[in-house]
Write a structure and sequence with these properties.
CATH topology: Nucleotidyltransferase, domain 5
CATH class: Alpha Beta
Shape: flat
Number of strands: 11
Structural class: alpha/beta
Helix content: 25-40%
Strand content: 15-25%
């Protein structure tokens, strides 16, 4: 144990643990963060499909009430579960750099206006933190890329158009490629990493799952 903090509300212990070397990056997954499914992956899976109901439950509660605190704890637990489940079977995961969530235009589009206030910046930061922690504990490499146009780009022909996405449906206005919009974004996230400077070193030995 490196240190500990004692307050009138909690006791916090800080320590380091050895997790070992990272796994060889053969199974790589891009992850898109959303509101209808907390995690959509480049291999066509979605986790946390009920995350919106947890958020709306918080919204229905009186601010600061015991009911709202209980609902927030339930959301936190759900985030923990989804982070753990999403990391399974992956050697490398890639997410978007969602910084300044209160101001970032894409983050605002991810959240419906009537529930944006309820989910809060903290929950999204907590989700990414827990995802990264799960990756660390499981020796999975954790990387991030720019979020710009990942939801508007066609992975087949490269055409970028805001009209490509309509709700949960992605349909390219150029080549006609269709897919779930969030899964399509996850595939663009992974491809953006591999097309970058650092991702090029992984591509010869990887396979998408």
């Amino acid at each position: 144990m490196n240190s500990y903090i004692i307050t009138d509300r909690y006791v916090q212990f800080v320590f380091e643990t050895e997790t070992g070397e990272k796994k060889e990056a053969k199974k790589c997954v891009g992850i898109d963060t959303g509101i209808n499914a907390l995690a959509s992956t480049s291999n066509g899976k979605q986790f946390g499909n009920d995350i919106k109901s947890h958020i709306e439950r918080i919204k229905r509660c009186k601010h600061g009430s015991n009911g709202q605190k209980k609902a927030r704890r339930a959301l936190k637990q759900k985030i923990d579960e989804v982070a753990k489940e999403t990391i399974k079977e992956a050697d490398l995961v890639v997410v978007e750099k969602l910084k300044n969530l209160g101001k970032n235009s894409k983050a605002k589009r991810l959240l419906a206006k009537n529930i944006r206030r309820s989910i809060g910046t903290w929950n999204w930061k907590y989700w990414l933190m827990r995802l990264e922690q799960q990756a660390e504990w499981n020796r999975v490499s954790f990387r991030s890329v720019s979020p710009y146009y990942t939801s508007q780009t066609c992975p087949c022909c490269g055409h970028v158009d805001r009209k490509n996405r309509s709700g949960e449906i992605f349909q390219c206005q150029s080549c006609g490629h269709t897919d779930n919009a969030d899964i399509n974004a996850a595939r663009n996230i992974l491809e953006r990493f591999f097309s970058g400077h650092y991702g090029a070193a992984y591509k010869p030995k990887m396979r998408q799952i």
